[in-house]
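Why does residue order matter? Because the sequence determines the fold. Keep that principle in mind as you read this record.
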Amino acid sequence: MNHKDSKEPQIDDAAVKKYFDNAKGGTAATVSMMTHEYNLPASAAGYRLHKETGTISDWLGAVHESGRVLDVGCGAGTWSEIFAGRYKTVIGIEQSSLMLKAARERTAHLPNVKILEGDGRHDLPEGPFDMIFLGGLCMYLNDDDVMALLNALKSRLTEGGSIILRESTLHQGVSLSQGEYQAVYRSVNLYRQLIDGAGSFRVEVRRNYGYTNLVTAEELVNLRRRWLPFLPKNSTTLGSLTWWALRGTAPISFRAMPRIFSQLSIPWPRLQNHFFRLRLVG
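Structure:
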């Protein structure tokens, strides 16, 4: 994967769609959680999701159970399914044919969920919505598209409604991943600038340590592949051993170390992830 700094990173939309339609080396669910290339057990994605929902539990709790929720870029429907257990109406929208099929299958038994096919930049359903969720969509959009999308979403909010973003971030600056897998990684400050450019929002930011835990495991898998090339590159056994070793030392590996590195301004793991809650001013 080739990363290079750019002041104006440009994502190739066709490449993004092709990547998520193919699910090379994984299922729609594992690709949606980006665990498919590291041979980690399914429980790793479940652990991340559990930590993530806990991180924003009060934000989710602020939405009444009678609420109407929009999940933009819903992927395999993981979050749409979670929202269905909390709110009266959930609408998901997804453009990848593979993800769309998986989301519809996952939520087929839920009468309060509807999954639409479409590009969130052009095919948004009419509001209003009490909450709009983007679970890792902006990282696949260029800056202008992010601001245009947020501007379109704010007109679909109820009074007091919120937009929640969950995006992979860098410690500082911006970096574009090119090639077969394309994404743009921005710092929290750059996301704040984009949000400011889209309108008058009050913004709250929270570090997503559930994501950090998973990326720590992925970084260790990459180190093993680099420094121990005589071991199999792809091995579910080694992937599981890596994950459970980290889980077994969680007080240090998952809780203490990321916070210590952060306080010392040490950029490891390279990628972070943050939740942003946006609410209209006034």
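The chain has a mean pLDDT of 90.
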